[in-house]
Write a structure and sequence with these properties.
2% strand, mainly alpha, 2 strands
Length: 344
């Protein structure tokens, strides 16, 4: 070990500092360090490296799943999902708060507290109108077939509408496509068939994406409606499963290809995989996992005040490994101090 440079008379050594209280002023040895220069050099170096890697490797992320992509890649799934939106049986239509007032049972709750009903509807979504009828009214301005179908559907009673959508639900399970034309088996679909064919055409061109993103805000950043619509089908779920994103695959991640996902999210997703969250409490899993994570977070914040837990750093001195250079210098100064064994 190399010898430390001699200290000026009257200055404190590291050994002296170790015996001082934390609020004492330091007048021992100092090292000049330009923090601003180090930050600037690191910033420039990392910026150049990021730009170079982006040019060479491009982005590793997949393209976003849009309604247009969905309708072009799997039009059968799009039509099967659209009819459930029209008849009000889709997950989005029956979700309950915060999207609509109807939900099976009382929704997710903690004990007697129904959090979903307590929060109420603050992002209103009418699946039939928002996802199907309203976009078709825009298309009807230039498509007489869609206009006539909408008029016939609106003039019919709920029972007749239900018969049409039920027939279409049965028929769309056997749908085929001739080029871009929709081919259904014979059935009494009424105006539902031309309506949903018109909606598929809108989706294929991308106009349905634009319509569902329309809002009074200047920037169209509210993706709630298109995401709910896409999530009601099986297309996005199958793509998510291929990327290990489904719930039974511990999937929560920000980029593709990193199974099982972001390391800092494992603690959250883990609870969905273990009882009782995965079994008897599964109906309330979301809110219960959230509440449990809040309790763990509170416990982490209160560690300095919990006897036993706050003593772990002293009992398990990992800090001495992290600050090993400091303690090595401290030990050298203690050995070299006058009056210590082995010093001259």
């Amino acid at each position: 070990m190399s010898e430390l440079p001699p200290q000026a008379p009257g200055t404190r050594t590291l050994a002296d500092a170790a015996r001082m209280s934390d609020d004492s002023d330091w007048d021992g040895p100092k090292i000049r360090y330009d923090l601003l220069k180090e930050f600037l050099v690191a910033l420039v170096a990392m910026t150049l490296l990021a730009v170079a890697l982006a040019v060479v490797f491009s982005s590793p992320d997949d393209h976003p799943v849009t309604i247009r992509h969905w309708a072009q890649a799997d039009p059968g799934d799009f039509l099967a999902t659209a009819v459930t939106e029209l008849n009000g049986s889709s997950p989005a239509a029956t979700y309950g708060p915060p999207y609509n007032v109807w939900a099976p049972g009382e929704g997710q709750k903690i004990g007697p507290i129904g959090l979903e009903r307590w929060a109420g509807v603050h992002i209103p979504v009418n699946a039939s109108n928002d996802f199907v009828l309203s976009p078709l009214r825009l298309a009807a301005a230039s498509d007489p077939t869609v206009r006539a179908a909408l008029t016939q559907y609106a003039s019919a009673g709920p029972d007749q509408q239900g018969q049409w959508t039920t027939a279409y639900t049965d028929g769309v399970a056997h749908v085929s496509f001739r080029d871009t034309a929709v081919v259904l088996p014979p059935g009494r679909y009424g105006p539902v068939a031309p309506m949903l064919t018109g909606l598929l055409n809108m989706a294929r061109t991308g106009s349905l994406d634009a319509d569902l993103l329309a809002s009074p805000q200047f920037y169209g950043t509210d993706y709630t409606k298109p995401l709910l619509f896409i999530a009601d089908g099986s297309f996005m779920a199958s793509k998510g499963a291929a990327q290990h994103l489904s719930g039974d695959q511990w999937g929560m991640m920000n980029e593709t290809g990193n199974f099982p996902g972001q390391a800092w999210l494992w603690l959250y997703t883990m609870w969905y995989q273990v009882p009782p969250f995965s079994t008897s409490w599964s109906a309330n899993a979301d809110v219960l996992v959230w509440a449990f994570m809040m309790l763990l977070t509170l416990g982490l914040l209160l560690v300095p005040f919990i006897p036993g837990l706050r003593s772990i750093p002293r009992v398990v001195p990992v800090y001495r490994l992290i600050w090993r250079d400091h303690y090595r210098r401290l030990a050298a100064e203690v050995r070299a101090a006058p009056g210590k064994p082995g010093t001259g």
